[in-house]
Design brief:
This protein is of the alpha+beta class. It has helices at 23-35, 42-51, 72-80, 99-109, 116-122, 135-143, 151-173; strands at residues 3-9, 15-20, 56-63. It has two domains: 3-80, 3-Layer(aba) Sandwich (GIY-YIG endonuclease); 101-108 and 115-173, no CATH class. A hairpin with a 5-residue loop joins β1 (3-9) and β2 (15-20).
């Protein structure tokens, strides 16, 4: 189901509008991030924490099945219909690129060199241009080429990480940083 959805605080009347090509999936993501306290909209998160999940209604407000119709102008219509909203910024064009478009962009950029200005912007990123790898580090990395971890190690690491993230969720629920 594609279109515009709303998240409404039934106690205050404040509303958040959004658009999605899959409304059900997007609403599920909102519920999840709100529930675990890491929604990217701090106003909506604060209201969720204050009023609780039962104070909010999630629903599609306008279904747009035609994929050739841009959702942003429709979302903007809903956004402009009220001043009592959680949205932090106005809707913007969020059209995603098709696989063909991505391929054409990739082909167009092959063989191009970055300008000196672009390289300078990337120097702060240690994984990009400008970062020198020591001979010792290079030697260590070469020793791991083509090697993988044993299955027992992978299973153990998987259990450790699952426990780590479960503990993090519990800590967030309790209000710990």
């Amino acid at each position: 189901m594609r279109g515009i959805y709303s998240i409404t605080n039934t106690l205050t009347g404040m509303v958040y509008y959004g658009q999605s090509n899959n409304i059900d999936k997007r609403i599920a993501k909102h519920r999840y991030t709100l529930k675990y306290g890491f929604h990217r909209n701090p106003h909506l998160q604060a209201a969720w924490n204050k009023y609780g999940k039962d104070a909010f209604e999630f629903k599609p407000v306008e279904i747009v099945e035609d994929i050739t119709i841009y959702l942003t102008p429709i979302e903007k219509k809903w956004f402009d219909s009220t001043t009592n909203k959680y949205n932090i910024r106005e809707p913007e064009n969020k059209a995603s690129l098709t696989e063909e478009h991505i391929k054409r962009l990739s082909e167009a950029h092959k063989g191009k060199k970055l300008s000196e200005a672009a390289k300078k912007k990337l120097i702060g990123n240690k994984n990009a241009f400008g970062h020198k790898v020591s001979d010792e580090a290079r030697h260590l990395m070469a020793g791991f080429k083509g090697k993988t971890h044993p299955e027992e190690w992978k299973e153990n690491k998987s259990k450790q990480m699952k426990q780590y993230w479960a503990d993090r969720k519990v800590q967030k629920l309790r209000g710990a940083p």
